[in-house]
Write a structure and sequence with these properties.
The protein has 308 residues and is of the alpha/beta class. The chain contains ten helices and 13 strands.
Length: 308
């Protein structure tokens, strides 16, 4: 599959700070990728370089086979920054028509393009209003719609649901799910549940270096891990009874949340060991709040960053 983004030994410094440090990434076309890492990891710098706003200090970066600032990429990359300002005193519809005209659409095709996007993002009730009259969530949907003008091959979304209430955030996530079928997406977010729900792959960076790039299903080791949230902390007798089960390799407990434990095992039939663990919990009179096959995604990401 053709790569839509290739970063080779990508390095960028700001004074004595290495924002990106010898980064190597290849992203295939039609991928939906979550970009995660702690504050200061280099995510914003990488986004700025993908857009052509910053140039490498060392190494190289190509987007759709071209340097990010190449004229041939005009209209092929859609960008949703975390914070973006719309023009006051001009209706949303007029602004979107203007953005389409700036991408080369004529009056007729610009209106056709915008009408399609309005329907996709479901903002028909908003387009006659002025941006200053809209809520934060409504403006976020408008700027997401703006990023879709021109049917871009690649869409970069920086914290697409940050600051939104649960209803508005869910609406934006539903739109992103629709976009996955026809576009390549890179989503930077601190919301790991969101990344897991809308992305196929994850890129974890820290201190400008690549920590992990893999499919999310591979990251959470679904077949040999059980993550259990109990209604009380597991006592030592219960832990020992579970450890004594032949397929169990180890039990990892969470110091920050003693009610959570992760059981790592090796068995050809995971369902059987799952039932045996449930039996031990029932005998001990310990209730289950949550039971998942696979390591907790958030815990796994935190673990990888902590080891880096």
């Amino acid at each position: 599959m053709t790569a839509i983004i290739e970063c080779s030994n990508l390095t960028r410094t700001f004074g004595s700070i290495r924002a990106l440090d010898d980064l190597n990434i290849t992203i295939p076309a039609r991928a939906s990728v979550g970009l995660v890492g702690p504050n200061g990891a280099g995510k914003t710098t990488l986004f700025a370089m993908l857009c052509g706003f910053l140039h490498p200090g060392k190494g190289s970066i190509t987007v759709l086979g071209h340097k990010p600032d190449a004229a041939r990429l005009k209209g092929r990359i859609g960008i949703l920054p975390q914070d973006i300002s719309l023009m006051r005193g001009i209706s949303v519809h007029a602004q979107m028509i203007l953005f389409a005209r700036l991408q080369g659409y004529n009056k007729i095709t610009a209106r056709q393009e915008i009408d399609q996007i309005i329907q996709l993002v479901n903002i028909g009730s908003l387009v006659k209003q002025f941006p200053e009259t809209l809520s934060h969530g409504q403006r976020k949907k408008i700027t997401l719609a703006q990023a879709l003008i021109g049917k871009p091959d690649l869409i970069l979304l920086d914290e697409p649901t940050a600051g939104l209430d649960p209803v508005a955030a869910n609406e934006v996530r539903n739109i992103i799910q629709k976009l996955r079928h026809d576009h390549s997406l890179i989503i930077s977010s601190h919301n790991l549940d969101e990344i897991r729900n809308v992305c196929d792959e994850i890129i974890i960076i820290d201190k400008g270096k690549l920590v992990r790039h893999s499919r999310i299903d591979d990251l959470i080791e679904r077949n040999n891990v059980l993550t259990i949230l109990l209604d009380q902390a597991a006592g030592e007798p219960l832990l020992q009874s579970i450890k004594a089960l032949p397929p169990v390799i180890r039990i990892d407990t969470d110091e920050s949340n003693p009610h959570r434990m992760t059981v790592v095992f090796q068995a050809e039939k995971p369902d059987q060991i799952q039932f045996k663990i449930l039996e031990q919990l029932q005998k001990a009179g310990v209730g289950i709040v949550e039971f998942n096959r696979g390591s907790a995604f958030t815990d796994r990401v935190v673990e990888l960053v902590g080891k880096h």
